[in-house]
Amino acid sequence: MSTVPRARPAPPRPPVTGAWRDGDPAGRRRWHSSGTPLRLEAGGELPGLRLAFETWGRLAPDRSNAVLVLHALTGDSHVSGPAGPGHPTPGWWDALVGPGRALDTDRWFVVAPNVLGGCQGSTGPASPRPGTDRAWGGAFPFLTQRDQVAAEAGLADALGIERWALVAGGSMGGMRAMEWAVSYPERVGALLLLATTASASAEQIAWAGIQLGAIRADPHWRGGDYHSTGRGPVDGLGLARRLAHVTYRAEAELQTRFGRAPQGGEDPWHGGRYQVGSYLDHHAEKLVRRFDAGSYVVLTEAMNAHDVGRGRGGARSALAGVRAPALVAGVDSDRLYPLSQQRELAALIPSADGVRVVESPYGHDGFLIETEQVGRLVAELLR
Ligand SMILES: N[C@@H](CCO)C(=O)O
User: Fold this and answer.
1) 216, CA 20 to 30 Å: which among 137, 191, 195, 238?
2) Any known ligand binding at 241?
3) Which residues are listed for substrate binding in this entry (predicted)?
4) How far is residue 304's CA from residue 34's CA, in Å, rounded to a whole number?
5) For ligand 1, is residue 74 a contact (CB within 6 Å)?
6) 157 labelled as ligand-binding?
């Protein structure tokens, strides 16, 4: 069991405008562009799409060692490595990916795309709309996880990868991993689903709906068409992140770390903050610096739409088609994607060997933090 870290004060930062611009060519990222418009599940098509991706290790001559890692809502392609130009955060699974680590890059070729609809190099609402001199903004089409996975299949084709040795993802990344295993069963050699669900529940849709409401209520949202205005809906996005972040952590953790303590010299009875409020302010400030509100809306709506059984005769029938050996795991303190959802998933996937429990005080974020336990699951699947 991990110990809960002590709270640290946030350093001061320059102001944020939130007028997000697409394009971030400075990193080690590469891009896959599709010449063919993507036909969308909800109807219509998306022309000129581009996926940013990163890779670690070398693809074997027989192309049998490729692993696909899929990020969650506000993640990106930067799974491993330090923060730097083009990479606003350090690799979110850095402890798992690298030489000698669970995903040993001396052996495995690890590929991580930024999700379609995202804002770290892949086509999303902040990207230029083909045929115009403006961003897509509010005209960006409604996407589903299946559309996102279809775009990722195009990337796999372009890389010459017919079959992944492993497809792994947590939370929203788990939704896409599951869609990969159902839509392309012959292309998935093993499957790791973490802290995810067969379909978004009423409560998940409810929390997400409040976040969407906060963004859309910001006067700078302008129906999603704010990218050229010089100011985006940073207040709304910040509120959404505060709320989301509470759902990502556990009640006992927040109580142990912060309790009722006031922040620094502030007085909560006279307009000051509690420590926990300051902690949420910090996470909100960090997100609005690196994330586009339009992408947050598109990706959140796609998560709400997630239902692996849609149009497939229900989840049981859809997941019966999964051929790959599968591991389904959840975090014992996760209140957003509770273990009951992973138990249900494991029961519906014939090749899954029950549910594994990641022990963590951190709630849903445990799938990002408990890398030792997750590493053991990866190693078990790749053995
Ligand atoms: N902290 C994660 C949680 C969502 O799974 C994220 O922001 O993507």
Assistant:
1) 195
2) yes
3) 241, 365
4) 26
5) yes
6) no
